Amino acid sequence: MTPYFFGFGSLVNTATHTYDQTQPASLPGWRRTWIQTHAHHLAFLSAVPCPQTEIEGLVAAVPNANWVALDLRETGYDRLDISEQINHSIENKPEVSLYSVRQNVDMQGTRKPILLSYLDVVVQGYFQVFGADGVERFFETTAAWDHPIIDDRNAPRYPRHQTLSSQEVELTNHYVTAKELTLIE
After folding, report:
1. How far apart are the C-alpha atoms of 85 and 123, rounded to whole Å?
2. Share of the chain above pLDDT 70, in %
3. Which of 17, 44, 153, 177 is exposed most, by the fewest CB atoms within 10 A?
4. Per residue in 94-124, pLDDT tens?
């Protein structure tokens, strides 16, 4: 049986990958968080257990169970089996994995920045799949917003950056302002 992955960040944006057979899903008992590790100079999203939270995302098929390309994209993450926890409508209950950083997390000292181009990609994906309410839920179910955000929109540094509509830009800007996030250049 074909396995699936659960994307909860940039993998929700189907323009950033070629995996198909995608559909919305939810994962109770987890939340997203911005993390930093010794291995990276930027903050990025991970998922961590949290009994009070449920996160939305996408499940997508991994053809021929060939995890090589996805494991390479998600370097630094551990692939965890969440088959018994996730809610989706795929028949025959396939294996579903989640990428989560469990080791080498460095939350001490100065907060490493988030790329705005990365956040834009995530917001675009959530808007396209779940609408404006889904974007709001993304911001509500994500922790550690105390990282500064590098405004790299005019010269994107995120390798899978996308062109956003004016509505998608406005959505990201709205939440950056509403959450009083720190933008740096």
Report:
1. 24
2. 98
3. 177
4. 999 999 997 657 667 789 999 999 999 999 9
